[in-house]
Amino acid sequence: MIQIGQYNRLDIIRETPQGLYLADEEGNEVLLPNKYVPKEFKIWQTLSVFVYLDHEERPVATTLEPFIQLHQFAYLRCEEVNQIGAFMDWGLEKHLFVPFKEQARPMKAGNWYITYMYLDEKTNRLVGSSKTKKYLNNDNISVEKFDKVNILVSHLTEKGANVIINQKHEGLIYIENIFEDIRTGDKMEAYIKKVRSDGKIDVVIQPEGYKSIEPNTEFIYEELKAAGGFLPLHDKSSPDEIKNQLGLSKKLFKKAIGALYKDKMIAIKDDGIELL
Q: Gene3D superfamilies, from UniProt (predicted)?
């Protein structure tokens, strides 16, 4: 089935005065208008095209790249507001419609808004919404601590920057963790700092000082912080000393402090390890 609001890989099946007709494996067809037809092509050649609805609400293909796809968020400019709603520039000829009921606050032409795009089940039309919170889900979180993620800055508050994580979850970069100029609409890579028990997600722009590939690395790091930055254990300590204080074997202890040392998080001294 040809997917509205998404990219589709379709085969050229015939040429007409209006353009090329493309089809999927099930035989569903869509027109690629002449203005988007590549200079060179062959029948049965496969093209990657974006499919949306034209001004007459008919499926049509394009080689233009939209700013947003189905079930995604993007920062879009409002081009027009009339008696039925607002219309956003999303990179295609026909603007994306945002009805009044889907506006978090009344939109104004010329302003920019974080917008979510969905397919209206009643009309089968692509529609936008600036009530983005209801389309984010932190019940089934798909990220973990230290994961590298893609974020979209949704808005700034006194606490910090609220962000959309991987087009799925809501997160927060606390103000004390912001060391550069960021604004609403910025897209960037970031890192998961913490996933809280209540479903809230803390995000940082820069990676933490280390990444715990070895699970015991984080444990020792936290033990060091709790002990004021120093533990009287080192690679010459006896297995019993290490076991009694940390509950780890000497082999696992050495592997973990080796990772911390490599990442320049600790110094290994004659009398113990020290947090840098």
A: Nucleic acid-binding proteins, Winged helix-like DNA-binding domain superfamily/Winged helix DNA-binding domain
Q: Give per-residue pLDDT as tens, 54-97.
A: 888 899 999 999 999 999 999 999 999 999 999 999 999 999 99
Enclosing H/E stretch for 47? strand 46-53
Q: What is the CATH number of domain 215-275?
A: 1.10.10.10
Q: Cβ distance 21 to 30 under 8 Å?
A: yes
CATH 1.10.10.10 placement within the chain: 215-275
Cβ count within 10 A of residue 246 = 17
Give the whole-angstrom CA distance, residue 36 versus residue 104. Answer: 35
Quickly name the fold that domain 73-133 has: OB fold (Dihydrolipoamide Acetyltransferase, E2P) (2.40.50)
Strands 169-174 and 59-62: unpaired
pLDDT-based confidence at residue 208 (cuts at 50, 70, 90): low
pLDDT tens-digit readout, 5-25:
999 999 999 999 999 999 999
Asked if CATH classification 2.40.50.140 holds for the domain at 6-62, the reply, yes or no, is yes
Contact in structure between 169 and 136 (CB atoms under 8 Å)? yes
Element at 170 (helix H, strand E): strand 169-174
Percentage of the chain surpassing pLDDT 90? 64
Extract the tokens encoding 188: 């960037």
What is the CB-side half-sphere exposure of residue 84 using CA atoms within 13 A?
4
The angle subtended at Cα 230 by Cα 273 and Cα 247, nearest 5°, is 75
Using an 8 Å Cβ cutoff, are 15 and 32 in contact?
no
DSSP calls for 67-81:
S--TT-EEEEEEEEE
Token pair, residue 71, equals 């079930």
- What number does CATH give the domain 148-204? 2.40.50.140
